[in-house]
Amino acid sequence: MTPPGPLSNRGHNVDASKVACFYNSQAYWRKDLAKVTPEELKPALQFCSHLIYGFIGLDDDDYKAKSLDKDLDTEKGKNLFRTFTDLKRLNPNIKFLLSVGGFQEKEKHEKWLKVLEKTDRRGKFVTTLTKLVKDYGFDGADLAWQFPVVKEKKEKSTLGSIWSTIKHTVTGSHTDDKEKEHKEQFTALVRELGAALRGNNHILTLTVMPHVNDKAYFDGSNIKDFVEHIHLMTYDYRTPWRTEEQADYTSPTQFVGSRNPEQNIEATVKWWLEQKIPAQKLLIAIPTFGRTWKLTSDSGKGGNPPLKADGPGKAGPYLDEKGTMAYYEICPTLTTSGPSSSSILLRKVPDTTNRLGTYAFRQDDKLKGIWVSYEDPDSANKKAYYAKLKGLGGVAIMDLSLDDFKGSCDTNHRNFPITYAAKLGL
Fold this sequence. Notes:
Number of strands: 19
Largest sheet: 8 strands, parallel, barrel
Mean pLDDT: 90
Oligomer: single chain
Order of helices and strands: EEEHHEHHEEEHEHHEEHEEEEHEEEEHEH
Strand order of the largest sheet: 1-2-4-5-8-9-11-19
Strand content: 15-25%
């Protein structure tokens, strides 16, 4: 990939490509400075072509599409569905979509397969989802289907001279004895839902979640005409839960050589293009969060991945999730100076290759050692530019609530700097 220049719009019309912006509605319930309501999304509207509400789910018994949090989503509570779609008044050109699936019910993948297996079950799901879309003023739906995830593969160790087995702790890694049937049935669902939505002048998009076996479940040639575009969740190739003992790049654009030949954006995009999906229908995801690992005395001092680690890093001050930090938690701690004894600062190491990703770390001092792989405005801009060079449809931001939505780190106090930078890269 030819390295792009400074952060800019590359001298062309930035409105030509899509920026699909996800909003995790559970951010409404976060505490203090981490709380993000639809009101906080207003500054991002100028950057987004699509705004996607995540996520609703599937009834355990009758396979209807349903809210997973009625106290939040519906008029029985905060009515966030309607508050969200009311933002359309500020920018009527944005398409507002309701996403079903995602990561909210990852422990219950069996029901997501069962609904596919019977025509009447699919019909009930289609009917209830299209009704929710219509009733709350959405412009369409997004399917982020909960397929079983695959286990982490063994990798020839760069930490030693033998083949190392990476510790597997992936909850819900299962085999599917009916992959072929489920692939055909999911294709039928996409066609049925796409046709039903189209009848109401609504659209359908797909989201391919991380660690799903694309080859097993997606029939590109038979679904492409029923979806506006496909969001490829091109992040979390490595995570502190899947590779507890090895900190590594989570969202590399390319890997040089034989290491992780399939765990990068280039390989993912290549496979989807081989399925005869038009490039303009593919959007690559840019995460607004980092994945963190705890470092130990065996991790060394250089910080260069892959390196030995001891599971997820300590939770950040606002998001309060082990192994994950929002960009607004990462950016205030960054320094470009050398390693120090600070218990707060992280040494930033930019990606000069434009291939692997940015990371930051703090050496182990018994309790405070941490390593984080993350995106910043510069890396987001470069990934968007990569999408442009490949002729792709654009990018997907996952998600707005973890970007620096208050503009606290941006030198110009710009809200949503990662989203803004991605927009300029297209």
